């Protein structure tokens, strides 16, 4: 009954009754608009894999009705419902000019005994090996066909998918802006020296590193700002090694501009941040 309880909270927040899938979408759109009015400009989804099955609206409405009344649906119907809902949410993001993020690949709550003792999401998650390429391509393509693909950042948790994601973003760059689709920095288990270097190498080999948004942290702690310094040092080391090996020209103004862009300017401009506004983890955005 967790879904029913969540719907009740959504009803209270939106001020509208939710008995049908259409009413559900209307309530979500109302909350999306409310967050937009409060200054929010980004969404974030944590998924095992992208859901992009073909669906029929009639079946999706029936699946919602079953869940609303506490009845179970079969896995195929749930997958199609999830696909439809993710698409609708992405359309909302595009309509209001938001950017959207997808963190893909976490295998969560693997230890049943510890979940019963401590609850969900208490440190027993791991790296998953879910299918990525086909559903991700279908999801992005469905939005691109109707010109409703918002600015998008893709994060993978399994290192085997580095080149997959680095190549995938190139399929849907449409020229409307530089780096509309982004390969997000190394995340979670990969957010360490080897993982970060591997992500940067994959992007450099298959994409355009100069347009990279750089480091991010999903912690709200002020001390997380130190992770950005760690990232900057790591990028400087990698570029220095490439210069020493003759792979990158020893052009100091060029390198300086590249580092400033990757470590600051790209993210500021891509997100549309103004100097003096607070960024993630409480870091002040300055020129």
Output the helix-strand order: HHEHHEEHEHEHEHHH
Instruction: Name the shape in a single word.
Output: globular
Helix count?
A: 10
Number of E-state strands: 6
Helix content: 40-55%
> Helix/strand-derived class?
alpha/beta
What's the average pLDDT?
A: 92
Q: What strand line-up does the widest sheet have?
A: 1-2-5-6
Proportion of β residues? Answer: 5-15%
* Spatial separation of the terminal alpha carbons: 49 Å
Provide the gyration radius in Å. Answer: 21 Å
Largest pleated sheet: 4 strands, parallel
Give the uncertain stretches in residue-range form: 278-287
Walk me through the structure:
By secondary structure, this protein is an alpha/beta fold. The protein has a four-stranded parallel beta sheet with strand order 1-2-5-6, with helices on one face. A two-stranded antiparallel sheet has the order 3-4. The longest helix is centred in the first third of the chain and has 21 residues, at 75-95. It has helices at 2-14, 21-37, 57-68, 75-95, 112-118, 133-145, 162-168, 193-206, 225-244, 252-271, and strands at 42-47, 99-104, 106-107, 126-127, 151-156, 181-183. The protein starts with a helix and ends in a 16-residue tail after the last helix. It is built from ten helices and six strands, in the order ααβααββαβαβαβααα. The chain has a domain at 213-287. The model is unreliable at 278-287 (pLDDT under 50).
């Amino acid at each position: 009954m967790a879904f029913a309880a969540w719907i009740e909270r959504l009803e209270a927040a939106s001020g509208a009754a939710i008995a049908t899938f259409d009413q559900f979408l209307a309530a979500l759109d109302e909350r999306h608009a409310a967050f937009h009015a409060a200054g929010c400009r980004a969404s974030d989804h944590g998924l095992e894999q992208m859901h992009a099955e073909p669906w029929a609206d009639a079946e999706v409405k029936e699946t919602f009705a079953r869940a609303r009344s506490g009845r179970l649906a079969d896995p195929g119907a749930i997958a199609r419902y999830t696909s439809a809902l993710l698409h609708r949410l992405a359309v909302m993001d595009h309509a209001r000019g938001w950017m959207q993020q997808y963190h893909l690949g976490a295998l969560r709550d693997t230890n049943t005994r510890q979940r019963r003792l401590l609850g969900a999401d208490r440190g027993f998650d791991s790296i998953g090996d879910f299918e990525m390429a086909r559903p991700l391509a279908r999801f992005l393509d469905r939005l691109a066909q109707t010109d409703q693909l918002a600015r998008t950042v893709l994060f993978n948790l399994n290192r085997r998918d580095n080149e997959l994601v680095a190549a995938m973003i190139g399929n849907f760059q449409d020229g409307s802006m530089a780096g509309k689709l982004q390969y997000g920095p190394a995340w979670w288990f990969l957010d360490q020296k080897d993982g970060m270097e591997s992500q940067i190498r994959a992007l450099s080999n298959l994409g355009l590193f100069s347009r990279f948004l750089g480091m991010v942290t999903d912690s709200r702690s002020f001390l997380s700002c130190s992770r950005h310094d760690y990232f900057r040092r790591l990028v400087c080391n990698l570029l220095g090694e490439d210069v020493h090996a003759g792979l990158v020209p020893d052009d100091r103004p060029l390198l300086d501009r590249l580092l400033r862009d990757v470590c600051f300017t790209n993210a500021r401009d891509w997100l549309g941040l103004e100097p003096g506004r607070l960024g993630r983890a409480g870091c002040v955005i300055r020129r």
